[in-house]
Write a structure and sequence with these properties.
Layout: H1 16-35, H2 39-43, H3 53-72, H4 79-85, H5 95-98, H6 102-121, H7 125-128, H8 137-163, E1 186-189, E2 192-196, E3 211-215, E4 218-221, H9 227-235, H10 247-256, E5 264-266, E6 272-276, E7 279-282, H11 294-303, H12 311-319, E8 330-336, E9 361-364, E10 381-382, E11 392-393, E12 397-398
The chain binds N,N,N-trimethyl-histidine and fe (iii) ion (FE).
Amino acid sequence: MRFPLYPSEAVAPRDRADALQALASHHGRARALAETLTEAQLRRQYHPELSPVGWHLGHCALMEHHWVEERVGEAAPDSALHALYFPELSPKDERATRLPARDALMAWTTGVHERTLSRFADPPGWLNAHPLMADDYLLHFLEQHFAQHHETLLYCLTAITASEPASAPGPDGDGTPYSAPTGPDAIHLAPGRYRVGADHVRAYDNERPSHTVQLEGAWLARRPVTNAQWLAFMAAGGYGDDTCWSNEGAAWRERNRVTYPWNWHPLEGGRFISSGPLGYEPLQPDAPVSGISHYEAEAFARWAGARLPHEFEWEAADRQGLLTDTGRVWEWCSNPLAPYPGFRPFPYDGYSMPWFDGEHPVLRGGCRFTHPGIKRSSFRNFFQRHVRHQQAGLRLAWDTPPSEVKTP
Ligand code: AVJ
Ligand code: FE
């Protein structure tokens, strides 16, 4: 399996030309990725939380067709396509069996991609004049939507690596023995009022409107928790230490027999290797840990005498340039996703509103599979507490200065 992840020069698109180029590049990478898979791999669901790769291709194509041709244009809604590719109409465990054959799927998505690009490259009057096209909003929305699903495709490939080790290339390495964890290296976020959120054309509805919040002040770890620190937690019996776990977290851990992160695989001698979209990778001791649920993140923080940061503490610290190693793993925060004051659902009610249910903690920053175009201080990701495939880790926070604090 070899395919481009993200071009190293990728940046956040600013104007129509940038966004168009980014969208074309998502199209190309997604199709190239699909070409590396067998038809069976393209259609199969490898993980209860993750749809088949082919479904993501179809879903992204339908979003383009729906918004450009059915919502702004006058095409009649295609109810068969909606029933398969709109998540709220399509039970996840039925998607694999309902997907069309590979050739039909690829031909249809390629056709949609070509038409979308030509629509936006030279917008007809009806498209240009539509309110959704103010500041090229619709193009930016569809481009970012595809970028997020491309990230999910990389999670799907990671799941393929894990369940079909024989077809996974990559180092057959013996894992990495762990080094001792380092002590806290924390920054101080002073009490005060801080601006959070964003109002620019690429801001999602849940980032709007920007506003100020009062924070009590906190100490935040300069870096996310590392693999070596996670191994130390495991070696100290952290997974079995119920004093660190919430009741709900302990019940989840027992039900699923969780004793190490999602994409880790045990080798002899208590060592581990991790799986990624391109195959197995040695576990790097100093890299941020990922593949953990919110329950595990909370347990680690309690074990370490710390807590998870609130998303506003993370954003305020990040905007001041105080955090290091952001964007390598999604960082679980303490609070669930909730609307900002004055929230308006946009461009559809279902984008964020269904997830304001108290069951979706926020994650900040982005991971190594996140396109640079959606890595921003104000971006809010969200998943249920048990979800582990999205390359999430954590950064510790404290209400009082931890030992060995270095203030900026
Ligand atoms: C915010 C990443 C959880 O992937 O389901 C994609 C983003 N919303 N299509 C997801 C999203 C609609 C969403 N996450
Ligand atoms: Fe989507």
